[in-house]
# Entry
Amino acid sequence: MHNKTISELALGLRVGDFTSVELTRSYLDRVSKFNNELNSYITVCEESALQSAEIADRRIRAGEAEPLLGIPIAHKDIFCTEGVKTSCGSKMLDNFIAPYDAHVVSLFNQSGAVMLGKTNMDEFAMGSSNENSYYGPVHNPWKLEAVPGGSSGGSASAVAAGLCVAATGTDTGGSIRQPAAFCGITGLKPTYGRVSRYGMIAFASSLDQGGPMTRTAEDAAAMLQVMAGFDPRDSTSADQPVPDYMAGLGNDLSGLRIGVPKEYLGGGLDADIEASIQLALAEYTRMGAELVEISLPNTQLGVPTYYVVAPAECSSNLSRFDGVRYGYRCSDPKDLEDLYKRSRGEGFGPEVKRRIMIGTYALSAGYYDAYYLKAQKIRHLISDDFREAFKKVDVIMGPTAPSTAFGIGEKSDDPVTMYLSDIYTIAVNLAGLPGMSIPVKPVGGMPVGLQLIGNYFEEAKLLNVAHRLQQETDWHSATPAGFE
Amino acid sequence: MQWETVIGLEIHAQLATKSKIFSGASTAFGAAPNTQACNVDLGMPGVLPVLNKEAVRMAVTFGVAIDAEIGQRSVFARKNYFYPDLPKGYQISQFELPIVGKGEVDIELDDGFCKPVGVTRAHLEEDAGKSLHEDFHGMTGVDLNRAGTPLLEIVSEPDMRSAKEAVAYAKKIHQIVQYLGICDGNMQEGSFRCDANVSVRPLGGPLGTRAELKNLNSFRFLERAINIEVERQIDLIEAGGAVVQETRLYDADKDETRSMRSKEEANDYRYFPDPDLLPVELDADLIETIRSAMPELPDAKRLRFAEVYGLSEYDAAVLTASKDLAEYFEQVAKVAGDAKLAANWVMGELSGSLNKAGLDLSESPLSAETLGGMLLRIVDKTISGKIAKQVFEAMWAGEGEADQIIEAKGLKQITDTGAIEAVVDGVLEANPEQVANYRSADEKKRPKMLGFFVGQVMKQSKGKANPQQVNELLLKKL
# Structure
C-alpha cells in the first residue's frame, strides 16, 4: 500500500479495497518499524490519527470524495498543531504544545487528511543536512550513513521510506527541494505568498514558504490544491485565484522553451550529476521541448545575499523565544538578564546561535547599510535576472544540488561548505519564484534532483512539466532497498 | 548669563479603535490581566500581524487636521529590544517612512499671541504590555492586555521655549485628537502620554545637550518637571558641569527628576522593515474622503463662537476647550435662544457645580436641554436671574425640569404692575424716615439709597417681583 499514489489510495478507499483505519494502521506500523533507524518523526500521533481515520471512513461511506480524505500524511514540526507538541526541532520548544493550528494544518484537517505525526527537521529550519536537530540527525533511507538533506529532512526521508503518503515541508533557501533531491522524491516550493505562513514558525519571513513533499508530481498537485490560497491572517499571502492543478497535468510539452542557465551547468558541477541532468533534458527535447541557453549573471551572489537577509530576519524572529511566556526557561535565573542569557544560551543550538549573531551584526547601527541594505539591492538584481530570463523561456531547469547526499558528519564542521550546497536553490527564494525538485537518474545509487523553476504563480505549469517526465520515465518510482 | 530653554515633545496618543493594531483582540481598558491578549498579542510562535485599517484612517485624519504631509507609502519597521512586557522581542513601529510627515499647529500664548509649533512626524506603532512590580514578592508580573494597542506617536520640533509653551502645545494636541475622536485623551489611564526633550543654551546659541523626561502623566507634572529640569541643567552648567544625554524619570512625590539610563546604556534597536507587513499604500481617494469628512477643529470653532455668538475671545476659548463642552454650550444656546446667557451659565454655575462635585461634563446631572429650558424662562421673563439660581439648585438636586420646579415652588416672577405697586406702596408707607432721607438727598447718592427699597420689595415678594419693574415704580413714586 505504501508505494501507491494519493489518487490510487483515494480510489482504493472509495471502492472499499481498504479503510482509512487500515491504511493509517499500516503506515503507523511502518513508522514504528523504521523510525528508530531513520529518526524521521519527532512526534507520532497514533491515537488521534486513528480517530481521524475513523471519521474519514464514515465520511467516505457517506459518499464524500475529497481527494485527501482518509490519506495519511505528516507535517514538518515547524507547523503549529493545536494540542500537539510543536518543537521546530529545538530544545527551546521541546515542551511547547501549540495552542492553535497553522492555516495549512487546518486546511489539511478540513480536507479529511489523517495526520500521522510531526517530522524531524533542522532546528528552526536552519540547516541543509538535518544534523542540526535537537532530536538527532535524520538518516537517508537510500544510505543510512548519509544525510537526508535539510531542513525538511524528516519529511523527505519519511516520504521516501514510505512512512507517510506525503508530507508538508517549508523552504527558505532550498529546504524542500534539496532534501527532495537527496531522498529521491518530488518537492515543490510554491511562489512566495501562495501558501499562508500563518502558524508556520518563522525563520526568515520574506523567504519562508510551505509546500508539498510527495512521491509524484501528481501527488504534489493534490497536496498543493489543499494548501494554496489566500489567508487574511497572513498579510503577505497572495489574493490570487488557485487554478485546478490536477486539470493542468495532461498538457502537451511541444514548443515548451526550457531555459538552461550556463551558470548552473558546466563549470564546477560534478560530471555525473551533470550527465543525469542532461539525460533528463534530452528526455524533454524528445517530448518536443526546446532548450535555450540563458544567463543568470548574479547566481554567485545568491548565497552571500541569502546569508545576510535570512539571518537578519531570523535574529528578530527568534527574539520571542526568551524564556518568559513559553518554551525553555533556564533553572533558577538570578535576574532578568540571566534569564534571557541562559534560557537562550541553553535552549538554542550552535547553528541557530551562529545565525542570530550574524543577523544581529548585519542589522547593527553602522553596518545596516553595508550589509542588509546592500543585500536587499542585490536581491532585486537577482529577481531581475529571472525576469529577463522568463521573457525568453517558459521554465528554467538545472540541478537542485551540486552533489548527491553527503555523509552524516562530513560537512558539519564547515558551515561555509554546507551553505554552498544550497547554491542553486537559494536564488529562487530570494526572487520569490516557485521551484520544484524531481528525481532523475541516480548517481552511484544515490538520488539526483532536477530543479524546475517557474515564473510567479505558475505552479500549474511546473507540475505539468514534472508530471510529463514522470509519465515517460520511472526514476521517481525507485524505492530504497530495505523499505520496499 | 541669559539662558534659553529648548523643548521638544513626543506624545503617544492611544488611538480609539475597538481592536488592536495588529490583532482582533479588544482594546477596552481595565479587564483582568491577560484576558485581552490573543495568540498574536502573546507573540506565540508562527503568528502574524494584520494591520487594523481603522488605525490607519485615524492617523491620516490627524495628519490632515494639522495640514501635514501624508505618506502615500509608509512602512512598518521592527524596533528590536528585549523586555518581558514586549512579547515578540520587537515592537512594530515606523521608522524611515512614517504615515504622517511634517505639519504644524498654532498655540495661543498668555500675551494673546499665536505661535506655530512644528510637528516633525507622527507614526503608528503598537504599545507594549505592562510590567507589574508590586504584589509579586520579588518577581515581576506581566499583563499583556495593553500589548498591541495602537498608538500614534506625535513628535514635535524643538520649537518650544518654556514649560508654559510646552503645556500649551500638549494641550493643543490633546484637544485636536479628542476633537477628531481618535483618542479619548485620558491621561490617568495612559491614553495620552508626553515625554519631553529638554535642553538649555545661552540665548541664541547652539543647541545644548538634552535630557528626555518621562512619566509626565498630567499637564501639571509636565510643566513642573520641565521647570525643575531646566533649573537643574542651568545650575549644573553654571557650576562648571555638563548635561549628559539621558532619560530622566519625573518623581512627583519628591518633585525631582532622576536618571533612568544614560545614552551609553542605550539600545541599538536594529530597525529594519517588518517583512510580515506590506508597505501601506494610501490612495488619494481615501485622503480626500477623510479631508471632506473632517469635523470642525478647535481653532475654527473658537473663531466661529466669537463671531456668530458674539462671545469674547476668552469665553470662546474656554467653551471650545473640549468638543463635549462646545457641543453642550451650543445646545444650551439653541434651546435658550440667548448665547451670551448660555455662555455665562455654562462657564459659571454649571462649571462651578461640576467642579465642586468633582464631576466630568459627561456625568453632569443636567442635560443641555434641561439647562437651556431654564434659561429660556429667564429670557421670557418667567423668572429672574436670581430666582434662576434657586431653580438651578433644585434641578441639580434632581427635582425635575425648570417649569415643574417653578410651578411647584411658586417661583413665577410677578410682572403684574398692580401687584408690584401694592408691595411698593406698602414698603414706602412702612419706612417714612428713609423716604424722607431719599427725597432730600443729593442726586448722586440716590441710586445707592434706592437699593434699600428694592431689597425690601424683593424680600416682601419673596424675590419674585420683576426687578426691573420694581426699579421703575420706585423711581416714579419717590
Chain A has a mean pLDDT of 96. Residues 6-253+454-477 of chain A form a domain with the Amidase signature (AS) enzymes fold (CATH 3.90.1300.10). Chain A touches chain B through 44 residues (CB under 8 Å).
